[in-house]
Design a protein that fits this description.
The chain has about 280 residues and is an alpha/beta fold. The radius of gyration is 28 Å and the shape is elongated. It is about 50% helix and about 20% strand. It has two domains: about 60 residues; about 190 residues, Rossmann fold. Strand 2, helix 5 and strand 3 form a beta-alpha-beta unit. The strands form two sheets. The protein has a seven-stranded mixed β-sheet, sandwiched between helices. The chain has a two-stranded antiparallel sheet with strand order 4-5. The structure holds S-adenosylmethionine. The site of S-adenosylmethionine has 15 residues, from helix 4.
Amino acid sequence: MARMSDRQRAVVLGGPLAILLVSFVVWLLVGEVAFLVAVALTGALLAYLIVEARGFSLELFERQLKESRTSYAQLEALQGLLWTFKPDAPWPSTRFWAASPDLLREITTHVLLERPQVVVEASSGTSTLVIALCLQRLGAGKVIALEHDPVYVEKTRAAIALHGLQEQATVIHAPLVQHDVNGSKHQWYDLSALQLPGSIDLLVVDGPPETTQKLARYPAVPLLASKFSRGARILLDDGSRPDERLMARRWAEENPGSQLEFLHLEAGAWSLRMP
Ligand SMILES: C[S@@+](CC[C@H](N)C(=O)[O-])C[C@H]1O[C@@H](n2cnc3c(N)ncnc32)[C@H](O)[C@@H]1O
């Protein structure tokens, strides 16, 4: 009973009561024929409940089918990554708070093909590890991750150390501070400790969390705009969310000549190629 919705409770309890009431009134009016009315109404109620239950099972089946297709696609991408890197230490989680394997595959493909020398990440985690593994394989390049949360600074640093990637990756503790972005105030990572070895070839934006403020990730491009190399690429995770759609379009408008593309990944992503 506890898991029933109000509507279900009304049908299950109210239906038989209504049948009893109607049958009683009909019995008062026309006598024993009321028996037929009760049978017909009970049949109608049962048919209605069967149709409802079927609809519910169908909906559940479709949701499970969708999830199993998504899981298959993500497992396929994860397997590709594990084959590519053959890690000799445990691999941190993917999906949910971490980047999904399909985005990590997109990042890996980009880094291995385009060989960025300087990668900056807004946030840190599994994605930092994957970028560092790519750079290790290429034998050049550096990823610098900005992380506001000291707990995740330590977690990502530990993962980097476990995989022996300290040369390729640095995690900077960058608390969220107020910035002036195009005339309005925004919380974003403190950039005072950011020392770049060159201009940014790739920026991966997966933080700060959306709960920090409206358009939480928007400052990434305007605040780093002067540090991009020609043709730098920006990848924005969670691109299906309304805020991310809005900020990606705003970035493109604010950078005439840039190319914006939506990537159909599990969480959606935006790719912005700077002019
Ligand atoms: C979307 S996560 C970034 C994930 C990262 N790109 C990765 O692939 O692991 C954004 C921020 O959320 C925080 N975070 C990461 N995992 C979390 C968790 N399980 N619960 C709460 N916050 C988390 C960290 O501060 C992180 O920088």
